[in-house]
Amino acid sequence: MFKNVLIAEDHEMANLSLRNVMSDLGITVVEKDYVFQCDDAFARVRKAIREDNPYELLITDLSFDDDYPTQKISGGKELIQAVKEVQPDIKILVFSGENRALIASSFFNELNIDAFVPKARHDAKDLKLAIEAIYKNKKYVSPNLRHKEVHIHHFTNYDKTIVSLLSSGKTQKEMPDLLKAKNMEPFGLSSIEKRLSLIKTSLNMTNNGQLIAYCIANKII
């Protein structure tokens, strides 16, 4: 099980819940590794790297109260981005009051997090399952997310390009020449059609309009 865990959470009750879960899983988290501000969390990550004892897992909320002095890193999303830049292989578990499946999906797609658990009635059990899954190098999507199932698709540069072309009004028949000019493969029409179909199936979408709207809303393109 994990030996070095950092927890960024500024609400006392949620913090207590996390402490109980850590104890039940036999994970020892010392007091200095419970932090209440994003800047402090990022500083702890960098210090651990310098000391050659990096954290294996970061558990973070998304929203933090603004009653602390001005922070350079204002929220969980920005914290994850900053931490991933200095330690790309760290495992990330989001533990948040946000419970919309679409939002959770965007974190898997954009930031490659490992688990998303909403704060809910059975979140302690949910957290245990998530941590156990992450330890086995598996992704964990909470069944308590609104809309139940989160459809996850990792967008490659190729995917982003073909969706961007769709968004700009280009037809699929026009794409082979455009991709060829960009030296992007595969540029065959059949390959493009199959890739778009795969993306839409992964995200449970039925048309290109939905796909374009989803990518714009989640800042994928």
Task: Describe the 3D structure.
This protein has 221 residues and is α/β, with parallel strands linked by helices. The protein is 47% helix and 10% strand. It has 9 helices and 6 strands; from the N terminus they run βαβαβαβαβαβαααα. β5 (115-118), α5 (123-135) and β6 (140-141) form a beta-alpha-beta unit. α6 packs across α9 (208-217). The longest helix has 14 residues, at 189-202. The mean pLDDT is 86.
Order of helices and strands: EHEHEHEHEHEHHHH
CATH superfamily of the largest domain: Response regulator
Total beta-strand segments: 6
Largest sheet: 6 strands, parallel
From the alpha-carbon coordinates, what is the Rg to the nearest angstrom? 20 Å
Highest-level CATH class of the largest domain: Alpha Beta
Strand order of the largest sheet: 2-1-3-4-5-6
Count of DSSP-assigned helices: 9
What fraction of residues sit in β-strands? 5-15%
- In one word, what is the shape? elongated
